[in-house]
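Posting for a labmate who doesn't have an account.
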Amino acid sequence: MPKNSFSLLEPIIAAAVAIVLVSNVISQKFFGFTVLGVPLTTDVGTLLLFPVAYILSDILTEVYGYGASRRVVWYTFAANILAAGLYTAAVALPHSPDFTNQEAFSAVLGQVPGLVVASVCGAWFGSFANDSTLAVMKVWMVKWDPHHRWLPLRTIASTVVGQAVDTSLFVGVAVLFGVFPAADFWGLFLSQWALKSLVEIVLTPVTILVIRAIKRFEGVDMVGTSTWNPFAFRKDGGENRYEAENKK
């Protein structure tokens, strides 16, 4: 059972959903740079927000279990659909003559529905790839590493897998909707995948410290799940191994 009446789960869920929603707007701005003579392109959301989103996803899965992270994927999915509908309605509504920024307003928010479709496709498949990879590896690893000394192995491995799925789908769908030029696909994919993975790898020590602190605060360390079905929204399952793993 959790050690405290207040849980950090709700704030973490809120932050994870908010980050994805904000990224759909700021991801429209991207810039190019060269590494070892290879031209690369990335967007602002990739550098600022998505690595944090995946770190939060790792925290949810590692601490609270696959069931909790599965619900967050669906919360994000629903929030994205709602945001797309509201942005579309806001752009379509007639504007007052006093509002002189309709073109700029439309240029930014009018692209969001296409980005939302790309984001939903990438985030849904990528998040489940990330979360299931981490959760399955944890079930396997606790058999020979009950104190999680090799925790970075599964956080990094799940990131590489999840980011590859997320980025390829996000960039591909965004190109189909005309948000990004088709000629930039490979540059965007490679640079985003590399940057997202690299940033999270660099931040791994911070991620591990936060995960361990939250486990101590909550008294929770979930392993496994009653089902790996991504559509089993109400299922949790798994075993809280915190007390067993921290006995002297």
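Reply:
Got it, the structure tokens are right above this. The beta strands are 30-35, 38-43, 222-223, 239-240.
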